[in-house]
Recover the amino acids of this structure.
């Protein structure tokens, strides 16, 4: 091969050089794949970047920016298979989110087209492995061209055997016990086992079509409550729909729209967590909120993000609370965003999180204002309770539990989850209803009443209950449940 290794009296050196050249070829093949093997493919509207990296242990890593990664020990070969979802086409997103989508057809097409791309990817890796081996051998040893090609062929053959071993031992079932990093580590809490989720989805789908019609029935039944106590008897009463924790649930969007329309509210106040992860794709699920023809006031929650905030800012008649007092429908409203809404984290160490929440509360407590504040909106109840000594009416969320709480002279209203806790509500053993509150309030004079509304889609039952927040009637006690309740 080299002139020196042709001398018969240097057999040991010749063997050493052959081993060194072949080792260089193997190194070059893997190095070439590592540096130049990445490739991007468009598969049914999904832009996927795939690459192979040498490693001590066989693993497949799926990158879902900005949520994090999902990985599993899928094979025995010392290679890491990386798959990065770079982009979801607009057309595909609309199809996936459309109720008329043929999910089975989409998956069938994906299965048909993906193997062709994988074959092309494998061929590219072999070519890059050969090229990498050839270049490195030539750069280090300068052998004759024929020997360079033979060495490169050997290097690519070794890579082919390792890759083939990885394919042969590949076990897709390893993803039944995946490892998560980043925000998506919450997936074990949010997304159930597929069989359990599909079973619950079937139950919900069979009941959801009754939602809008039943809200009309619900509204008609409110007239019986008003016969006994009409909170709208004053001309200046403002009717506010309080919602929170939609969690990207498109059914919850219809729930909110139907309540706003049928109860003829003057504005909607949202106490945050419009999404689960704050991703742009999730905001597509909530675009129907822009069809509401009244002002929409939003206080971002810990599951929201800058993308969520920008989406709401782009809605018609929207106001995103950022520490300033805004006047909407005659009401002076104050609020600010949850500290975690500016990043991708949805939770922190408890002590660190509490410190940030306390700072959020202090910002509102220190807020000078020459205006009387009619209501304050914050996502976390910890902040709301700290504001109670100063502000008489606070709207909050976060807990997914509807409540009306009195602290001294202040009222704290939590509408619960208007999206039934999002995905997690589909599989929890405890049924989480869709819920909201209709607040009756007079600007500058405070709230008069609240209608608490809950809808259980599995049993197809609505519950509505009126609570008087200010009254001189002797048979109604402030803050207590009144007999003005209805359910069906």
């Amino acid at each position: 091969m080299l002139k020196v290794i042709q001398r018969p009296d240097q057999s040991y050196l010749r063997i050493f050089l052959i081993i060194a050249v072949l080792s260089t070829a193997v190194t070059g093949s893997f190095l070439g794949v590592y540096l130049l093997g990445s490739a991007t493919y468009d598969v049914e509207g999904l832009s996927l970047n795939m690459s192979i990296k040498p490693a001590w242990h066989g693993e497949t890593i799926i990158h879902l920016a900005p949520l994090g990664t999902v990985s599993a020990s899928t094979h025995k070969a010392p290679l890491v298979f990386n798959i990065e979802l770079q982009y979801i086409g607009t057309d595909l997103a609309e199809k996936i989110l459309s109720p008329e989508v043929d999910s089975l057809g989409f998956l069938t097409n994906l299965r048909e087209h993906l193997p062709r791309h994988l074959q092309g990817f494998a061929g590219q890796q072999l070519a890059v492995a050969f090229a990498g081996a050839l270049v490195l051998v030539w750069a280090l040893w300068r052998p004759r061209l024929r020997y360079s090609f033979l060495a490169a062929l050997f290097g690519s053959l070794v890579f082919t055997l390792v890759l083939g071993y990885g394919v042969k031992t590949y076990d897709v079932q390893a993803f039944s016990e995946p490892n998560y990093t980043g925000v998506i580590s919450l997936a074990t809490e949010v997304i159930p086992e597929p069989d359990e989720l599909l079973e619950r989805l079937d139950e919900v789908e069979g009941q959801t079509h009754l939602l809008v019609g039943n809200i009309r029935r619900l509204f008609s039944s409110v007239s019986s409550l008003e016969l006994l106590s009409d909170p709208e008897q004053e001309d200046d009463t403002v009717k506010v729909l309080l919602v929170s924790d939609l969690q990207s649930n498109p059914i919850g969007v219809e729930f909110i729209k139907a309540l706003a329309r049928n109860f003829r509210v003057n504005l909607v106040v949202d106490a945050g967590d419009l999404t689960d992860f704050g991703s742009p794709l999730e905001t597509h699920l909530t675009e129907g909120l822009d069809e509401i023809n009244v002002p929409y006031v939003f206080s971002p929650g810990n599951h929201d993000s800058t993308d969520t905030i920008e989406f709401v800012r782009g809605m018609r008649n929207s106001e995103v609370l950022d520490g300033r007092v805004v006047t909407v429908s005659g009401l002076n409203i104050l609020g600010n965003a949850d500290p975690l809404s500016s990043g991708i984290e949805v939770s922190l160490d408890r002590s660190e999180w509490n410190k940030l929440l306390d700072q959020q509360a202090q910002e509102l407590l220190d807020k000078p204002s020459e205006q009387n504040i009619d209501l304050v909106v914050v996502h976390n109840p910890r902040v709301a309770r700290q504001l109670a000594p100063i502000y008489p009416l606070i709207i909050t969320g976060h807990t997914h539990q509807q409540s009306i709480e009195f602290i001294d002279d202040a009222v704290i209203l939590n509408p619960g989850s208007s999206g039934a806790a999002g995905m997690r509500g589909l599989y929890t053993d405890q049924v989480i209803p869709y819920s909201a509150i209709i607040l009756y309030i007079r600007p500058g004079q405070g709230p008069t009443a609240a209608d608490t509304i809950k809808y259980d889609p599995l049993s197809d039952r609505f519950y509505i209950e009126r609570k008087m927040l200010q009254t001189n009637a002797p048979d109604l006690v402030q803050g207590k449940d009144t007999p003005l309740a209805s359910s069906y």
About this structure: The longest helix spans residues 103-141.
